[in-house]
Every structure is written in structure tokens, then in C-alpha cells.
Amino acid sequence: MSLLFLLASFFLCQLVLSSFAICPRDQSLALVEFNHSFVVDASASLFCDKQSYPKTSSWNMNKDCCSWDGIICDEMTGHVIELDLSCSQLVGKIDSNSSLFQLSHLQRLNLSMNDFDGSHLSPKFGMLASLTHLDLSWADFSGLYGIIPESIFNLPNLETLDLSYNDQLNGYFPKTKWNSSASLMELNLVGVPKCLWNLTHLEYMDLQDNRAKGPLFPQFTSGLQNLNTLRLSNNSLNGEIPSWIFSLPLLSQLDLSNNHFSGQLKEFSNNSVLVGVDISENEMQGCLPKSIQNLVSLVWIILANNQLQCPSSQVTPEPHKSKIT
Ligand SMILES: *[C@@H]1O[C@H](CO)[C@@H](O)[C@H](O)[C@H]1NC(C)=O
Ligand SMILES: *[C@@H]1O[C@H](CO)[C@@H](O)[C@H](O)[C@H]1NC(C)=O
Ligand SMILES: *[C@@H]1O[C@H](CO)[C@@H](O)[C@H](O)[C@H]1NC(C)=O
Ligand SMILES: *[C@@H]1O[C@H](CO)[C@@H](O)[C@H](O)[C@H]1NC(C)=O
Ligand SMILES: *[C@@H]1O[C@H](CO)[C@@H](O)[C@H](O)[C@H]1NC(C)=O
Ligand SMILES: *[C@@H]1O[C@H](CO)[C@@H](O)[C@H](O)[C@H]1NC(C)=O
Ligand SMILES: *[C@@H]1O[C@H](CO)[C@@H](O)[C@H](O)[C@H]1NC(C)=O
């Protein structure tokens, strides 16, 4: 009997709690302040696939902020864990002092398809330590002094980062070795032309086991002069392996295995310092280029599981130099 009573009061309590405001006051104030930094203008969201509309116009102080359009709160704590204001026709700046950065429990933040009017990509995004998904695409962000803040790449739980189509984002990557293998799974930099041209400081690039698709851009090239290791294995990259990869002056380890690369292998550069090359598990055709003889540092090259076929007279590498499997 008393157990039943306890249970009943427990459920009553739950009911009362969940029907009352659960959004903490500091969070709703931060959201309102954030809301006030914008004006609404339909032209800011012209490129949305779906119909854009100002989600914030339904935001109402008399209602629990967890019920506002675009907001999801943690059911237990009430903290705002998701903010999706994509395609919301917002125009205005997001400065480092923005109240957005007080929403410290955010796990998913989507500000895609708005007009933040050349706002510098603030290092404060890197303080939102719970972020798993950050989508700032098509939003007119620019780089602060040409730098994409390193803090963003150090977010411990970040799985996807979309900075695509911010064509003023003319920054280069952080100088330190950028090691994304911690948790970053998807990085979208399509349409960030100046950034791709200016990866000059990158020494180590590891994008294994991502979900990267499509061909490798020809323009991904000239900046990568410092790169010594490039690992792109286990993605869905296709098209030809661009020749610039084999011209990178300091590249010693190259792993392109388990993709859908096709076509013939391009010529290797005379000055190449490649030590290890793995192109296995692709759809490459034809022969090894003769210039493989120029690869004086080469210790191993793995070509298994391709469609390479060659008249025997053309198979060239000197056996003491290269282990071909
Ligand atoms: C948020 O902004 C919209 C449009 O700018 C406005 O209509 C709405 O009243 C604001 N809501 C709050 C709670 O500030
Ligand atoms: C962000 O919103 C856009 C538009 O609604 C959507 O296409 C995109 O998938 C969203 N991004 C994430 C990471 O959910
Ligand atoms: C944030 O800083 C900018 C200048 O950097 C200033 O114009 C703006 O008013 C500040 N906003 C707030 C909410 O303090
Ligand atoms: C590339 O980065 C350098 C700094 O290393 C900078 O001086 C230059 O302006 C950048 N170029 C572009 C096109 O952003
Ligand atoms: C990159 O990070 C992974 C996992 O955190 C670590 O095992 C690896 O040694 C790092 N590589 C470099 C070159 O820092
Ligand atoms: C390739 O990546 C997938 C996830 O994208 C993973 O499940 C699989 O184990 C990886 N395979 C190898 C050989 O690393
Ligand atoms: C590369 O080296 C080979 C043999 O040493 C030479 O015949 C060829 O002209 C060189 N190619 C270039 C582009 O320097």
C-alpha cells in the first residue's frame, strides 16, 4: 500500500517537474541575448534546400526555452544541448563576447545558412567542450588574422565539423601538427578556397576512417609543402590519384588504401623521399610508371587488390629497393 503511494507520488512529482520550466534561467537569458544580436532577413537564407523561416520569431519569454523552436534540452538537467538555427534568416555578428558561448553544454550546434556578416571565427567555439557536431557552413564567417582557431580542432568530442562555403575563411590551419584522429570523423571544407591553398604549416594529416567522399581536389595542393605523412585510408575517395601527391617534396608516408581510386598511377617525382606507399584495396588500373625507379628512398609499396595489369617487360622496380605486395 505504502509502496503504491510512494510510486504514485514519484510519478506525480515527475509530472509536475516535466510540466514546469526546466530551462535554467542563465541559459534562457543567454539565448535571448543571442537572439537580440540579429535582425531577420529572408535573403540571408536563400540557399536553403527546404523553406527557410525565422525560428527565433516563436521564441517567447513566457514559455520554457526548452520548447522553443530549434532548441533541445537535456531531459534530466534542463541544459540546452542542441541549438539548430540553420536556415533561420539571421543577419548579424557573432563576436567572442557573444552569449552563445555561455551555452556550455551544447553538443550539437547548427548555424548553417545564415549571414554572420564576416564575423571572425571565434576561438571561443573551442570552449564548447561537449560539442560533437558543429555546422557553420554557408554562414559568412571569416578567419581572424587568417587563422582558423586551433581550439576548434582540439575539441575533445567533435565528430563532424562543417566550415564549407565560407568563402572569406582565408585562414590556414594551426601551425601545430593537426591530429584529427582523436574523434573528428568528418571535415567539410568544400568551397573554402583560400584555406585549401594555404595549408602550409601542416606536417601530418590523418583522415583515416572518415566518411570522406569524392575526388581529391586539384587545388588541395600547393600549400602542403611541409607534409611528411598523409593518411587517407578507409574512406570513399574516388577518381584519379592526383599527381600533386607524388610531388610533395617531404612526403615520406602515403596511405591511400581502401578507397575507390581508379585510373593509372601518375609519374613519381625524381626528388621524392617516399619511404612507404599503400595503395591497396582500390580500383587502380594499368602499370606502375617507370619513374618508380626514381624513388630512391622507397622501402615498401603495397598494391594488393587493385586491377593493375602489366606486360611483364614493363614491371620495373629494382627488387632490393622496393617490396611490392
Ligand atoms: C527573438 O527574435 C525574434 C525576431 O528577431 C523576435 O520576434 C522574438 O520576440 C525574440 N524572442 C525573444 C524571446 O527574445
Ligand atoms: C544543419 O542544418 C542544415 C539545414 O537544415 C542541414 O542540411 C545539416 O545537415 C545540418 N547539419 C548537421 C550537422 O546536422
Ligand atoms: C561585443 O564586442 C563588440 C566589439 O568587439 C561590441 O561592438 C559589441 O557591442 C559587444 N557586444 C556585447 C553583447 O557586449
Ligand atoms: C597564406 O598564409 C600566409 C601566412 O603563412 C599569409 O601571409 C598569406 O596571406 C596567406 N595566403 C592566403 C591566400 O590566404
Ligand atoms: C594522433 O592521435 C592518436 C590518438 O589520439 C595517437 O595515437 C597518435 O600517436 C597521434 N599521432 C601524432 C602524429 O601525433
Ligand atoms: C573502416 O572504417 C569503418 C568506419 O567508417 C570501420 O568500421 C572499419 O573497421 C574500418 N576498417 C579498417 C580496415 O580500418
Ligand atoms: C628524372 O630522372 C631521370 C633519370 O635520372 C631523368 O632521365 C629525367 O630527365 C628526370 N626527370 C626530371 C623531370 O627531372
From TrEMBL:
It comes from the Eukaryota. Its main location: membrane. It is found in: Membrane. Keywords: Glycoprotein, Membrane, Signal, Transmembrane, Transmembrane helix. GO terms for cellular component: membrane. It is a single-pass type I membrane protein. Residues 1-18 form the signal peptide. InterPro entries: Leu-rich_rpt, LRR_dom_sf, RLP23-like. The keyword Transmembrane applies. This is Leucine-rich repeat-containing N-terminal plant-type domain-containing protein. It comes from Solanum commersonii (Commerson's wild potato). The lineage of its organism: Eukaryota, Viridiplantae, Streptophyta, Embryophyta, Tracheophyta.
